[in-house]
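From the shared-data thread, chain only:
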Amino acid sequence: MQPIEVGSPPAQINLGVPCAHCGVELAPALLLCPACKALVHRSELEALAKAAQRASQHGELAQAMASWRKALDLLPPESKQATRIGNVIRELREKLASGVAQPVAIDTAPALPAGSGFRRWGGALGSVLAFALFKLKSLWLLALTGWKPLLVGLTKLGTVWSMLLSLGVYWTLYGWQFALGLVLCIYVHEIGHVVALQRLGIAASSPMFIPGLGAVVRMNQYPIDVHEEATVGLAGPRWGLGISLFVFALSRLLHSPMLSAIAHVSAWINLFNLLPIPPLDGGRGFRALANPQRLLCAAVLGGVYFLTGQAFAGIIALVALARGFEKRPNDTGNPRILAEFLAIATLLALISRFAG
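Structure, as C-alpha cells:
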C-alpha cells in the first residue's frame, strides 16, 4: 500500500497580462507585482473570500476551508494575508473537529488590502480507550451513512480500472475470494484518506491502485501544518482498522478461515503503514508528536509487541525510540494524534495476532 502523495500546487493562470494597478507586464506565475507590490490575483481572491464567508455563515465548514485553500494558492506564502488565512483555516478545522458547525463571524475572515513534555502524556494515554470507543468512527460511519463514503472512488473511471487490474493480479496469485477481500480492504483504507481530505477542504485525487504495491491518493494542495498532515495520514489506518475489525468479526460469526486470513493481512498492511518513517502514514502522524510523546509510543508499543508477538509493533517501537531523540525546532505535541496513533496500532496488532 502506497502512502499519500503530494502533488505540485496548481499552476497559476497568468499569461503575461499587465498589472491592473500599474500596467507593468507580469511574467506567468507571479503572485505579486514586482513594481507596485499589488496582489496579481486580487479579484479572484476577493471572490474566494466571499465564497468562503458565505459557506461559513451556512455552517459549511469544509467548503469554506476549500475556498480559503484556493486563496492560499494565489498568495505569496510569506505574506500577511497567507498567514491570516492559515489561522482562519485552523479555526474552522477546530470547529469541524469539535462537531460545531457554527457560522464563523465575517470580521474574523482575513482582509485583502489593495496593495498588497511528558506533562500531558498521562491524560493522552488515558484517552486511548475512550478514543477507540467514541472517536474511531470508521465502522459507525459506514453503518450510519449507507456506505455513501465508499462510493466516492467508484464514480471515477481511473479508480475502477486500476482496481480491476489489481484484482486480476491478486486473483491470479491468491484466488478470487482473497483477492476481492484484499482489494476492498485496501480501497477502504484509501477512502479514509479521501474522506479526511474532503473534510478539510484539501483538493486530492481519487484512489489509484498499483498492482502489487497497493494504492495511492495524490494531494493537489499542501496541508497548512503538521497537525493537518497527521490527521490525513492517520485517517487511512483508522478506516483500515474499521474494515479489519468488520472482517474479523464476520470471520468469527461465519467461522470462515478465508475471512480470517483477509482480516489478518488487512491488519498487517495497516500496521505496516503506521511505521513512523516518511512518507508512510505513520511518518506523517509522527510529525505532530513531541519527542516525549514519541518515547511514550515506543514504551507502549514495546509492551504491545511482547503481548501480541507482532513484529511490526516491535519495529514501530524501535523506530519511535530512535525518533524520540531527534532535534526539532518546534517540540509541541498533539495529544489527540498520540491517542489515535496508540489506539490504532494496538488494535491492529491484536487483530493481526488473533486472526492469524
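Confidence is low (pLDDT under 50) at residues 101-109, 113-146.
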